[in-house]
Specification:
It is built from 14 helices and 2 strands. The protein is mostly helical. It has a two-stranded antiparallel sheet with strand order 1-2.
Length: 312
């Protein structure tokens, strides 16, 4: 009998790095943003991080135990989900809310769709949107230095001007916001770490950010004003979303062309939501909608098998 060869469809991905290694590196990369959040907002931020992350891990363990599935908490994916969700919460959010969000992220968004690798959207963002819809007031109330105040983007949207917007403070992160979104410097330390390790590349975040800048410059009413652009880049969770959530392996395209299309879609949607939507943020919804369109993007951009042409 002749030897048979089996060839899978392209693209072909080969890499020795394991899922647990990737998730561990992502966890480490998120620590600067988490540490700055604790420094900036104090013990409430720390407790939210601990409880939300622990709830994610516990939910995954209990579900897999009850369903007699392989226990996967040692792959760090639940840790990443819980930590990302915590970093997207206001520091004054009650602890039960973060725990509830983790249960939703792991149980509904991840496990009910088959576990890691089968979820169609980022679990942390799915949970954030669930909490935002269910507890709008708590999720949009921000306190800094003991005073309840609007985020710079919300203030800019309300006033329609750049007066009072301190982009230097936005770069440092000493502004109201969620636990992990405020410091661009801390976020970029983690992003550079992942870039150097080859865990992520520039294609998705670079295209996302560039498209967003072009969009708001054309339609934002301020042209290419550096202060306007910097404020939008540093606020509303854009950097955290671009580097740590849009690049999620499971919910983003695997082809180079697909990643570019995906990044452009993210930039356009975020710009639309920010400038014309009901919220000054827009990143979470942009990523979730783009996640759901990934199968279509993949279908259009996947390379054809060698030698296969179009229909005659």
């Amino acid at each position: 009998m002749s030897e048979q060869y089996h060839l899978s469809s392209s693209p072909h991905v080969r890499d020795k790095i394991t899922t647990s290694n990737i998730m561990l590196m992502v966890t480490i990369a998120l620590l600067p943003a988490a540490a700055f959040g604790v420094f900036n907002f104090g013990l409430p931020a720390l407790w939210n991080i601990i409880v939300t992350t622990a709830a994610a891990v516990l939910t995954e363990y209990v579900y897999e135990k009850l369903m007699h599935k392989k226990i996967t908490i040692n792959d760090f994916s639940a840790v990443v989900t819980g930590l990302l969700l915590a970093l997207n919460l206001p520091p004054t959010a009650p602890l039960w809310m973060g725990a509830l969000g983790s249960v939703f992220a792991i149980l509904v968004v991840k496990q009910l769709f088959g576990g890691l690798g089968q979820n169609f959207m980022n679990p942390a963002l799915g949970a954030r949107c669930f909490l935002l819809i269910s507890f709008t007031g708590r999720m949009t109330t921000f306190m800094y230095d003991g005073v309840t105040s609007a985020t710079p983007l919300a203030q800019m949207r309300s006033d329609g001007s750049l007066e009072g917007v301190n982009t230097f403070k936005m770069l440092l992160g000493t502004i109201p916001g969620t636990i992990g979104e405020t410091s661009v410097i801390a976020i970029m330390i983690g992003a550079i770490f992942l870039l150097l390790l080859g865990i992520i590349d520039l294609r998705i975040p670079g295209t996302y950010i560039a498209t967003f800048v072009i969009f708001i410059s054309i339609f934002g009413g301020h042209g290419f004003d550096p202060q306007f652009i910097t404020a939008h880049l540093c606020g509303g969770g854009l950097m955290l979303g671009a580097w740590f959530m849009a690049t999620d392996y499971v919910t983003s395209p695997i082809t180079k062309r697909g990643q570019i299309v995906y990044g452009m879609l993210l930039g356009i949607l975020t710009g639309l939501f920010r400038l014309f939507g009901g919220s000054a943020e827009g990143v979470s919804y942009a990523i979730i909608i783009s996640n759901m369109l990934v199968p279509l993007i993949e279908k259009v951009t996947l390379p054809k098998p060698f030698g296969k042409g179009g229909e005659k």
